[in-house]
């Protein structure tokens, strides 16, 4: 019997992770959508970040506009919903750029979108403010996991890589023919 002919409850049951004796009870998968909203600047490129008030674990931190995807929701539709809820505006265009995967305390699957938004609408009550930041000058209060999304997307260089590049430049006396560029 193919899954398309099974009753809906049986098809859905196959999508729900089933605990077994080898899996720790805290094992969980998060599906999330992240928006990268860009704007040209004199120094290159800016990206939009939101300073969060809630939930508590994000309070006072800058984040990319993002949230969890609801069960059964298509990631594209989730991204549109998230932007409308958080930034008060439907996006002009959303384009899936990457799917990233992280695992530590739980497994995160992140759908990363390039978004054309235009202007901002009324911000969510969970967001204090939204501002564009130079990619080269992101705030210290940017959540580490959101920084990792930007690093993986290639928008910012990792701190470790920057340190190595500066060290190489120092050791090599600033040789311009060295293949690595800071």
How would you sum up this structure in a few lines?
The chain has 182 residues and is an alpha+beta fold.
Task: Describe the model.
The protein has 182 residues and is an alpha+beta fold. It has helices spanning 8-15, 75-87, 144-152, 159-171, and strands at 29-41, 44-52, 62-63, 66-68, 93-103, 107-116, 127-134. Strands 1, 2, 3, 4, 5, 6 and 7 form a seven-stranded mixed sheet that branches. Strand 1 (29-41) and strand 2 (44-52) form a beta hairpin. It is globular and about 55 Å long.
Furnish the topology, listing elements before pairings.
Elements: H1 8-15, E1 29-41, E2 44-52, E3 62-63, E4 66-68, H2 75-87, E5 93-103, E6 107-116, E7 127-134, H3 144-152, H4 159-171
Parallel strand pairs: 1-6
Antiparallel strand pairs: 1-2, 1-4, 2-3, 2-7, 5-6
| Structural class by helix and strand composition | alpha+beta
Shape: globular
Number of domains: 1
Roughly what is the average pLDDT, rounded to an integer?
A: 82
CATH superfamily name? Nucleoside Triphosphate Pyrophosphohydrolase
Q: How widely separated are the two ends?
A: 57 Å
CATH class: Alpha Beta
> Which residues sit in consecutive blocks of at least 5 with pLDDT less than 50?
1-18, 175-182
Could you estimate the helical fraction of the residues in percent?
Answer: 10-25%
**Number of DSSP strands?**
7
* Helix/strand order: HEEEEHEEEHH
Major sheet, described briefly? Answer: 7 strands, mixed
Rg (CA only): 20 Å
Strand fraction equals: 25-35%
Number of alpha- plus pi-helical segments:
4
CATH architecture: Alpha-Beta Complex
